[in-house]
Amino acid sequence: MLPYGRQSIDRSDIDAVVSVLQGDWLTTGPAVDTFEREIASLAGLSGQSVSVTSGTAALHTAYGAMQLKPGDEIVTTPLTFFATATCAMWFGAKIVFADVSEDTGNLDPEAAASAITSRTRAVAGVDYAGHPIDAPALSKVAHDAGALLLEDAAHSIAGTLDGMPVGSLADVTTFSFFPTKNLTTAEGGAVVARDADLLERARLFKSIGYERVPEQMAEHGGWYYEVNSLGLNYRLPDVLAALGSSQLKRLPAFKARRQEITDRYNAGFADIDVLRTPGHRAGASPMWHLYPLRILDGRRRALFDHLRANEIAVQVNYIPVHLQPIFAEQGYRPGMFPVAEAYSDAEISLPMYPDLTDDQVDRVIDLVRTFVGA
Fold it and tell me: Does 3.40.640.10 match the CATH number of domain 2-246?
């Protein structure tokens, strides 16, 4: 079965992990510090990032660092993995959905602006499939309301918009390093932010609120610590951070190969009116995490089954979040966000990962073309 996504692990990755296993630190050690500096540098920021145990933990940590409270509102997209929304709900925040742009599937700035209220604390955009959000427009929407822009960049590390790296486009950005993502630490994620105080709150949140201040230790003893805020243990181990640092060395090659695969798919489907290839706006250099093909004749389920029957493990990304039962209690119903719903109804994610061969891509193209009668 040809998977829709998978990790790319080579000898250098294995050696990096083994080196840590043979050392003194398995967690909270120098490999984590190195990896956090490398992620911040890739994001175009000085200092360090805050590494965590998953992309979901990154979102939870970011919302915690924003100091959300009950009644705050988060404006976000329904076309995402549900953690973008549900992680804010743990703080009592209300989720307010807004529709997406038809071409990219990203949060539409005009729709987001219409959803803003006096209680909006953040606008959370998602780089769907790896295409960066319209950060300038969404920043204006958020900042005009006195809110922050959060960029859920689980799909898009190493992407850029108008030459600026993902991570420097929003007030707060979260990454995911799950095996199918653009680089992996097995499980893992990270938070970057422009504001040093917010980033420090993120660091405390992911470390159980545990503080060891040198001045206080000098006064009370080297064992002294304090807990002044609530947090969770989301600390990324050194063994996984070492894998991440090794993967970062190959990230440019990963990006180039993902673009080659995207280009090959695009060329293979260019003459078929019933198929819609991913939107790509001027100024954006996506890190293609997914290849979201859309079939416009209502036969997505049949195409899905056809490809699965032929050993192609395609996926659908995503069921719109507002249609999940947990949001029915808030009054969300089908038809409320027609662009996102239409996108989801037509979307099928074809195999996309760096080790995919041209022959494998061509096989997928041929199977899709055969299905639509092209």
Answer: yes
